[in-house]
Each structure stands twice: as structure tokens, then as C-alpha cells.
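Input set for joint prediction.
Command: fold jointly, output C-alpha cells.
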Amino acid sequence: MGIHRSHRVRPLEWLAEQLIRLLSLTAILVVFLIFLFVGRESLPIVLGQMNSAAPQTVIPVEQFDSLPSERIRAYLGLSAKEFQSLNQETLKALLEIRVEAALEGSTNRDAGLNTTEWRYLLKPYQWSDYERPVYIWQPVSEVPKYNLVPLLVGSLKTTLAALFFSVPIALGAALYVSQLASPSAKELIKPAIELLSAIPSVVLGSFAMLVLATALQALTGSQFRLNALLAGIALGMASIPVIFSLAEDALTSVPVAYTQAALALGASRWRAAWQIVLPAAIPGVFAAVVLGFGRCIGETMVVLLASGNASILSGSFLDPCRTLTATIAAELGEPVVGSHHYRMLFLLGTLLFTVTFLTNVVGDLVMHRLKSGLEGRK
Amino acid sequence: MNRRFAGQRRDVVSLLGTGLTLGATLICLGILAVILGYLLWLGAPQVSWRFLTAGAESDMFDVNKAGIFPMLIGTVARVFLMTLFVIPIGVTTAVYLTEYAANNSLLTRFIRGAVNNLAGVPSIVFGLFGVGFFINFIGGQLDEWSASPAPHWGKPALLWASLTLAVMTLPVVIVATEESLKAIPPGLREASLALGATKLQTLCQIVVPHALPGILTGGILAISRAAGEVAPILFTGAAYYLRDTPKSLSDQFMDLAYHVFVLSTQSPNIEATRPLLFGTVVVLLLLTFSLNWVAIIVRARMRRANRVGN
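C-alpha cells >
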């Protein structure tokens, strides 16, 4: 389908081709922009430029007229434009609020800490009201606490529970549909399983929260209705169609000659599928699981509704937990644009984007290798 | 003796393996059936003409009076606007990839990589992107240029929600269009070129019209995917409650999928408003499933037609 040389001389053809090429760069541009704009909002935290500590020196309201306006602008943390738009009365009121806050804050010895520093994000710390060092995410409090560990553990816990449930089922179904089912059955079953992906995640989440939770609580006798296991099961249902269709695709791409040879040598259909086709397609199956992992860790509404959203660090699957995605969804409405809480949520987003970016690259590379490898051997 | 024994055991293993994988398949189908059956059974009695056409003027949690008309309008509006952006760009990208690009050039691999990546980005990250790029950056710039006193574009709006969804569904349209372009027999293109048509003429008059069912499928799948998504629109346009349906691109809107979320978490009395929740869920499911169903049928027809054409 190469382009005929002679067409190059036609200006309209040339123009159309350039236009089409330009538009097709949109996908690259968008990935770049996502990285840029989600990353940009979180950059001050990564670089350690944010400070959540209460200001050490307080400017009394009486000094308002004597100090240069630039100094007051910097003290209040306003942009030049915002500063222009506010009248003197408002500015004085803002100063007063600062004075009052400083008086109250002085009772808490943690008020002077900059909790956006990396050590507070990753390591446990003994806050003034606590008996021992803890990992805690508590952004709306006098001293905002932004420890990421409970959220990371929550995300991993629900994802692991989901994969534990969905991987065997989805792979089993993929093996059956691609290798063992009759062609007519295959044509019915495959679209039916893929229809699972047509259930919106918010519907799956509210089904889990209202219906499944009751059944699961009766089964496990757990103290909490909403917990990591429930979120995991619901998440598993969301990831089954993803893993199934990728694995089925990988298994189907194994040349039929492999199966035929095995059958001719006297193997049963199961033996051919299990010992010949599956090993040949194993990189693709692995890729399906990796991409399923990416889907699970990035899913938002299911975990927001079903996980219980308690940001505590716990190893138990029967405790409620909170994930990275649910935290963003639950909290992004509250903070002021540009505040440390706001930037912290974008940091979570950057983290998620990076993780799914990597799983995608790995999954794609493996799938690509598999396909070109099989084509070469055909 | 030994050999026969091994042979028998092999059969048992085969039977067991087949049974287990069949079981897994049945579990998948069972999950689908149970969820659909349960929700339809509870929600279908709630769906009536009044429920579909009544607004939420008085009290959106009143089981006897509240309807979902404004949410339906909001969902249809955001999804329709989205297709206006995503279809032209998606189709053009697919055309470039199959018709123009050299198969293994660096650019092609980059585009494909980007498309695959986009398909795997979590939906909440698209929401963050919508806030950071569309609302704060573009909206903020527009407000600065127009020097409007209150933010007009720099806030959640129908337009920003649609654009965010368009970015999210771009891979869906590209993949479906590419598939249908690849399924067109090369003979058709060659015949057209041999008759003296240029590449562009062949594209516009032969290739794209033949790929139309595939493009349609891509659009339908994108709509179905977008209609059920909540995370990307949470902060880019959806509103908890509004008096009016959206009148302009800069208005916020109420939304069907978001309404499911609202009813299941923020209702004053979850038990009492359950019928509303299940009714809304059924309408949403009918929407996404019927769209998917149409896509499956169109795709099956297309495959059959192309098989005959070959």
C-alpha cells in the first residue's frame, strides 16, 4: 500500500496526507500532555518546594500600613493578580485570620512541621497525640498528614484480591473458549463474556455495596460490611473481561498446526491445549495478567463504593481500606487549587499514571514479541 | 499394564481439565446473568414513562415524584459532544496508520504505543488531566483573554467533560476503525488506483465508505464506554443537583451514571430511595447494553460480508 511517487506532485494529495499525519499525532500529544499537566501540578511536592508548616513569624495587623505591599503579598501567599483584586479591608481580615491561627496552632508542637516532605510521606512518624509512630493519611486536620503507605497498601491489597479471584476464572474461560469449545458455542460465549465490560463500574460498585456486601458478610462473619475483600471481588468482576479477551486473543494466535500436530500424535484436545498451546502462548497470557493488574489498580468507582475508604494501615483483607484512586475521587472536590492537599492528590495521579504506563509498556512489549515470534515460526 | 494405566489416567486428567475450564466459563456467564437478572428484577418495575420524563424540581430523592429526565439529557449531551471530537480524530489516525504509514517506522510505533497506553490510563487520571489542562490551563487562559470578572470557562463545564471523555475514548475509535480498514480486500484499493483514481480519491470514495460499519461500531463502543464512566466527569462537569438542564457549553450538567453514585452514597435514606437507584441503574444498563449489542451485530455482519467479498 505504498504511496505512488507520482502522487507526490499533486498539491492537494500532498496537503491531505500531511494533514492526516498531523492529526494522527494527537494520540502522542495527548499522552504527553497528560504527563505534563498531571505531573506539573505535583512537581512542587516532588521537588520539596511546598511548605505546609504554619508561618513562624506573624505580622500583626497594625503593621499593615508600614510594611511594603510586596512583603504582605508574599506573606499571604497570594499571586500579584489576586493581591490587586482584594481591597484593604479584606487583606486586613486575612492578616487577622493568620494571627488567630498562629495563636491556636502554637498549642500543637507539630504545627511547625512541613508535612509535605518526603520523610513524612513514606516513613511513620509519631504525631503529638499518638502513642507510637504511625502511617496515616489525614489531609484535613490541623496538621495535615500525607503518608502514602496506607493508600499504596490499600491499592495493592484490593488489586491482589481481585487478581486472585479473576485470573484463574478468566484464564480458564479463555482456554476453554479458544481451544475446547465448538465454533458455534465460541461465537455465543465470547461476546457474552465480553459484554461484562459493558456494565459500568459505578453499577458494579453499587451492586457490590448493596447486594454482595450483605452476602459476603454473612459468609465471612467480618466485622465490616465494606472491606478490601469485597472491593477485590467486585474489581475482579470488572477485570475478568479484560484478562479474558487478551488471553483468548493470545491463545487464538497460536497457529492451528500446533494443535493439529498434537492431535495427530494421539493427544486429547485438553492435552493439546494444556501442554502445547498454553506454553506457546504463555507470554501473551502473562501480558493479559499484567494489563489486568493495570486495570485493577486504576479502577476508581468500584473501590470508592465498596472498599469502605478507611485510610488505616492493615494487613487484613477483611478490614476496610482506601486506594489511591478512591482518595483522588473522594477528595479532589475540597482543596483550593494550588494548595498542598490539591498538589498531593495530583502526586497520587502521577504515581498511578506512571504505574499503568509501565504495566502497559511491559504488556505491549511481551504481546508484540509473542506475535512476531509465532509469525516467524509459522 | 503400566501403559494402559497411564492412558486411562490421562483421560481422567483431560476430563478434569475440560470440566474445570468449562466451569470457569460458566462462572463468567453466571456473574453476568446474576448481576443483570438481579438488577433488572429489582429495577424494571420502577421504570415508567413518568420516571423517564419527570424532572427533579421538587426533591430528587422523592421516590414517587422524582424522575431522571435532566440526567438523561445531560448524559446524551456530553456523549454526543464527545463523538463530535473523537470520531474525526480517531478515524483520521486509523486511516493514517493503515493507509499511509510505513508499517515499522518509528513514528508508527510511537503512535501505536501512545494509543495502547491511552487505553490503559486509569479513568480518574483523565479526570485529573481534565482539571489540570482543560479547566485550569485552557479555561483559565480563555478567562484571562476575555477578561471576565467571574470564571466563565475556568470551571467545570459540559464542554470540558466531553473533551475529557473524547481523550479517553480515542483508542476505542482508533482500534475499531483500524480493524475495519484492514478487513477491506486490498483488491478494491488496487482496482481503484488502476483505474486512475488518486490515493485521496480512493480513500474518500472506496476505502472509507466500505469501512463505515466499522467506524460506526467504534463510535457506538466509545459512546457505550463513555456513558457509564463517572470518574472523568466528577470534577470536570457533572453536578450533584441543578435546577435546569444545560443550556450552553459552559454549563454544568446532571448525569445518569453520576446519579447512580449520588443515590448510592449521598441519599438521606438509602433504604427508602433504593427503587430510584435501581430504576436509574436499569436505564443506564439498557443504554450501554443495547449500544454494545448493536456494535456486536454490526461487527458480525461486517465480518460475514467481507468473507463473502473475499
